[in-house]
Amino acid sequence: MNDSFSYRHIDFVEPVKKAVNTHLRKVAKLLEGYAPDLINLKGHFDKHPRRTEFTCTLNLSLPTGTLHASAAAVDPENSARGAFCELETQIKKHRSLVRKDFQWKRKRVRIARALA
Fold first, then answer.
1. Which end of the chain, C or N, has fewer beta carbons within 10 A?
2. How far apart are alpha carbons 67 and 86 in whole angstroms?
3. pLDDT in tens, 7-52
């Protein structure tokens, strides 16, 4: 996976990089089916100039589509957590649409009603 992150107006970058690396491992597990050189992740951290708010925006480019996630929080670690959680849910939904899981939905067996 090719990743690049930019940090704007953030003084303490090392704790943010640690949080990003833990989330990158989770995302890499979800994207094992794709070739690693075809996956591009671009992230941008920014501090709002007038408020104490950090925003994190993520753009994930896959061979089957592009996903975008963003989050804002009081500190950059929490904004990264929110953006990566949103990105993980989008990846799961995207993979189910690509696999066409909606066409293969199985009917549930209702054993409890049959026994009653």
1. C
2. 10
3. 998 888 899 999 999 999 999 999 998 999 999 999 999 999 899 8
